[in-house]
Amino acid sequence: MNRGCITALILVLAVAGCGGTKAFVNPEADMAYYEVVAIAPLDNLTNDQTAAASVQRVLRTELWSKGYWKIVSEGDWAQAEAKAREELGVDAAQPLPQEAVAMIGERLGVQGIFFGSVWEYRMQRVGQDEWPLVALTFEFVDALTGNVVWDVSITERGGPKFPFFGFGETHTLAELTQKLCEKALGGLSK
User: Fold this and answer.
1) Interhelix angle for 51-66 vs 173-185, to 10°?
2) Each residue of 124-140: pLDDT tens digit?
3) Residues pairing with 155 in the sheet
4) What CATH number has the domain bearing residue 102?
5) Helix/strand/coil (H, E, C) string of the chain?
6) pLDDT digits over 50-90, tens only?
7) How far apart are CA 106 and CA 103, in angstroms?
8) Quick check: is 190 in a domain?
9) Strand pairing report for 148-157 and 129-142
10) Is position 116 within any domain?
């Protein structure tokens, strides 16, 4: 194999392992308006029953580390959501209608709410090795209007950043989740 083919193969493999990120930021949103936010329980669309809680914990930590907002507790969210669902007659299995989101926002004194889903959260065999695979979507919604302020979808597989060299590897689901949450929130500024 000539040197050009080897270089092309390395580039193709490097790009294939990178995953992808798609993001939207509402150009009309004033991020300075949002001072207190909440994180709704994430939807778990995986076979791992702990995936949503694990990702939500990392998301909360990443949001705290940014220092932009005060974040209400999970317990306060759960109480406000249960009360809104009861008052509106919305079953726990149904998505929250905007009316419920506005009620929860008002009760908690929040201006914005993070929603999200965990699509993939597993170890994936690649040749002789296993690498983490994580796919997430997050959405930041204005609590009063229900308008989407920010939305991001991000997917990545762990493993070496540079095939055949073995450095920059991501070995665990926790490590990859932290990297993805940090990357996802990187485009969100106040």
Assistant:
1) 40
2) 988 888 899 999 999 99
3) 20, 135
4) 3.40.50.10610
5) CCHHHHHHHHHHHHHHCCCEEEEEECCCCCHHHCCEEEECCCEECCCCCCHHHHHHHHHHHHHHHHCCCEECCHHHHHHHHHHHHHHHCCCCCCCCCHHHHHHHHHHHCCCEEEEEEEEEEEEEEECCEEEEEEEEEEEEEECCCCCEEEEEEEEEECECCCCCCCCCCECCHHHHHHHHHHHHHCCCCC
6) 999 999 999 999 999 988 899 999 999 999 999 999 999 99
7) 5
8) no
9) antiparallel
10) yes
What range does the domain containing 17 cover?
A: 3-185
Asked if residue 78 lies in contact with residue 69, where contact means CB atoms within 8 angstroms, the answer is: no
* Residue 8 one-letter amino acid: A
Q: What residues contact residue 178 under an 8 Å CB cut-off, 6+ apart? A: 58, 62
**Residues 25/28/32/38 CA torsion (nearest 10 deg):** -60
Global confidence as pTM: 0.83
Look-up: residue for tokens 């950043």?
161
Domain total of the chain = 1
Listed in sequence order, the residues at least 6 apart from 109 whose beta carbon sits closer than 8 Å to its beta carbon are 36, 72
